[in-house]
Q: What sequence folds into this?
């Protein structure tokens, strides 16, 4: 068992950034960044609707419960937070020097699917924006395009990491 653990760490070493002795520190920093991203996104999702011109003098009920697009945006954020949670799990495996494992591959696959679903939600949101009558669609369209670009990068990176980890795991199993 101990011999297979040593071999696992030698195979996983090329996938670490600072080497195995720095993995817990780097993993902790990544986890803090992920939590910070989640908190900032959550605060912005709650605060931004108050800044819209049509909601300047609205009550909280009118802001949050009379806007179907805002409800759509909150539902569409579920894959984002699910991806953040799975990224926390993956960095936890990285901190434990257990990065090359079937569980980490599963979490990366989930992140990939979350990225793909974020793309789908963003495309549907863009269609909704384009079908509604509005004087200023450009801001929403640009935000949607940025979300799509970020989601594509997340999905491709997760797929690449998943493939690399699967290849490393296959090498361990075949040896």
A:
């Amino acid at each position: 068992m101990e011999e297979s653990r040593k071999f696992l760490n030698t195979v996983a070493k090329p996938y670490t950034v600072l080497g195995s002795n720095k993995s817990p520190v780097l993993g902790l920093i990544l986890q803090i960044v992920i939590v910070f991203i989640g908190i900032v996104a959550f605060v912005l999702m709650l605060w931004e609707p108050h800044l819209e011109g049509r909601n300047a003098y609205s009550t909280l009920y009118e802001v949050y419960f009379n806007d179907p697009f805002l409800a759509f945006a909150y539902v569409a954020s579920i894959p984002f937070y699910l991806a953040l949670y799975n990224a926390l799990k993956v960095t936890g495996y990285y901190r434990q020097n257990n990065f090359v494992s079937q569980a980490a591959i599963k979490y990366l696959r989930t992140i990939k699917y979350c990225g793909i679903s974020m793309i789908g939600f963003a495309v549907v949101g863009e269609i909704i924006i384009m079908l509604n009558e509005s004087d200023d669609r450009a801001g929403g369209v640009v935000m949607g395009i940025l979300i799509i670009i970020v989601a594509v990068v997340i999905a491709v990176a997760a797929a690449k990491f998943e493939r690399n980890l699967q290849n490393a795991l296959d090498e361990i199993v075949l040896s």
User: Anything to note?
Assistant: The CA atoms of residues 118 and 151 lie 6 Å apart. Helices lie at 2-12, 23-47, 60-65, 68-76, 78-95, 102-131, 138-174. The chain has one domain: 2-174. Residues 2-174 form one domain.
